[in-house]
């Protein structure tokens, strides 16, 4: 892609489905060359990643967080509640994109009320949808 991605050192995928994470990683690897792509299978691991806790200590902070809504345990909405409590530094470095199979208009409306959520994208992630996220958020 373009030099817009110079600021994009890392992309974090948060989805409980391993096959979905694999597929999205393949799509992203075709779009970016030097960006670290990390996938976690729970909202809790996503929060721990952002905080650099445990196994995630020292990992680069993501510029984009692709977040599934429907996950067991903490779901995407729970993640967003906890994310909202994190430092402004984390918020300044990251944007959140809901990447979901949900077709519920209430989910889209709820997401629109959360300032941290920049986009609501239907799964699966496509190269075109990724490019749109980059163009709209990394100019």
From TrEMBL:
- Keyword Cell membrane appears in the UniProt entry: no
Keyword Cell division in annotation: no
Record-linked Pfam families: Response_reg (PF00072)
The record's SUPFAM superfamilies line, in alphabetical order, gives: CheY-like (SSF52172)
PROSITE patterns per the UniProt record, alphabetical = RESPONSE_REGULATORY
Q: Which residues does this entry mark as bearing 4-aspartylphosphate?
A: 68
Q: Which InterPro entries match?
A: CheY-like_superfamily, Sig_transdc_resp-reg_receiver, TCS_response_regulator
Q: Where does the record place the Response regulatory domain?
A: 10-138
Q: What is this protein called?
A: Response regulator
State the organism named in the record.
Algoriphagus aestuariicola
